[in-house]
């Protein structure tokens, strides 16, 4: 776990520009590059450089670019820790994470780190055991010890959110991967998991399938319950019922193992709650002498980087993890005091996933 921070300093209007330098500044090798060197090269005052570093809203974009170009040319590194001393904000965002080995959480954590850096912030991450309330409490305590300005929760288990409700957390908290049924989409940026599942199921219905099964994820994961709910809703909207719902643990192995029970009910199509489980099911279908989509149409969820290289390439639902992370960071960075207010829902609509149609799904009329 790592952490460091910087601080937004108060300031007034943009300071007048200093006399532009005639040529690039080459600071003496005996001393480190400082704010003065950046100011001279950019043709601004030292106060303006400070305001750019602290994201002051009244800095003109052209001035900001000149200062950032000078910083890059001089390879100037601000002393964020020193600037944070004596201030109320550390410019550090805490991330509370569990199950980071799975694609969704691991991708979200990487996206959060990139979004935080782009916003001039640092990230401190605490990995916790979702089964253990003491572990969650210790993770929160660790992040609070880093003086984080807010916390992003990438722990998509019902138990973790219940634990957070029991703990007193005195900084803004947002959750990721919890959109839809059972989540906190009214207070956090989220992907609409229910709608994503409905899109996937609707695609199979529109291909003419009526015997559709669901390969679900673990029951204690918010995304899993949301996707299963969306599957049920979409089938009901077409007057259909699930042929079967069999649960896996997100792994390809569990998709393979669950396939025996799914295929016993003779579905013509399956909506899998993630791509890895779909991959396992693909293998079992082939081993049993079938083919995808010849004997079973298949749709996954997530659009992992390997999905287009499955054989056949997998039809799936894509989530925009980068945009989700940017929204989470913006919520904490831009207006942390307002976050979670009464107007949160209206200002933060959920992201709608996108169906990516590939070769693993086909019309029911395909010979079987």
From TrEMBL:
Record Pfam families: LacI, Peripla_BP_3
Keywords associated with the record: DNA-binding, Transcription, Transcription regulation
Keyword Transcription: yes
Domain annotation HTH lacI-type: ranges: 33-87
SMART domains, per the entry: HTH_LACI
Coiled coil location: none
Segments for region (Disordered): 1-26
MF (Gene Ontology): DNA binding
InterPro entries: HTH_LacI (IPR000843), LacI/GalR-like_sensor (IPR046335), Lambda_DNA-bd_dom_sf (IPR010982), Peripla_BP_I (IPR028082)
Top-level taxon of the source organism: Bacteria
Protein name: LacI family DNA-binding transcriptional regulator
């Amino acid at each position: 776990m790592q952490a460091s921070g910087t601080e937004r300093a108060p300031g007034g209007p943009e300071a007048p520009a200093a006399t532009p330098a005639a040529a690039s500044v080459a600071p003496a090798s005996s001393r480190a590059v400082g704010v003065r060197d950046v100011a001279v090269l950019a043709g601004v005052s030292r106060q303006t450089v400070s305001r750019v570093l602290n994201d002051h809203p009244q800095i003109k974009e052209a001035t900001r670019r000149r200062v950032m170009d000078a910083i890059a040319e001089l390879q100037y590194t601000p002393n964020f820790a020193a600037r944070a001393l004596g201030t109320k904000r550390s410019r550090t965002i805490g991330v509370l994470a569990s199950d980071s080995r799975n694609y969704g959480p691991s991708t979200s954590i990487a996206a959060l780190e990139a979004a935080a850096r782009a916003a001039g912030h640092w990230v401190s991450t605490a990995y916790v055991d979702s089964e253990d309330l003491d572990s969650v409490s210790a993770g929160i305590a660790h992040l609070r010890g880093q003086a984080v300005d807010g916390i992003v929760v990438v722990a998509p288990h019902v138990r973790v959110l219940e634990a957070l409700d029991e703990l007193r957390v005195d900084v803004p908290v947002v959750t990721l991967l919890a959109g839809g049924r059972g989540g906190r989409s009214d207070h956090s940026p989220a992907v609409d998991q229910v709608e994503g599942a409905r899109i996937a199921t609707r695609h199979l219905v529109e291909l003419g399938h009526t015997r559709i099964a669901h390969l679900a994820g673990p029951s204690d994961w918010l995304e899993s319950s949301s996707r299963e709910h969306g599957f049920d809703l979409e089938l009901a909207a077409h007057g259909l019922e699930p042929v079967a719902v069999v649960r896996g643990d997100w792994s390809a192995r569990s998709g393979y193992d669950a396939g025996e029970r799914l295929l016993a009910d003779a579905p013509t199509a399956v909506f899998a709650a993630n791509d890895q489980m779909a991959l396992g099911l693909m293998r079992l279908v082939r081993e049993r002498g079938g083919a995808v989509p010849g004997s079973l149409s298949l749709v996954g969820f997530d659009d992992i980087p390997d999905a287009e290289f499955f054989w056949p390439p997998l039809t799936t639902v894509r989530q925009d993890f980068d945009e989700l992370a940017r929204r989470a960071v913006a919520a904490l960075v831009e207006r942390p005091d307002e976050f979670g207010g009464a107007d949160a829902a209206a200002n933060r609509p959920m992201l709608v996933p996108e169906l990516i149609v590939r070769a693993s799904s086909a019309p029911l009329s395909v010979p079987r």
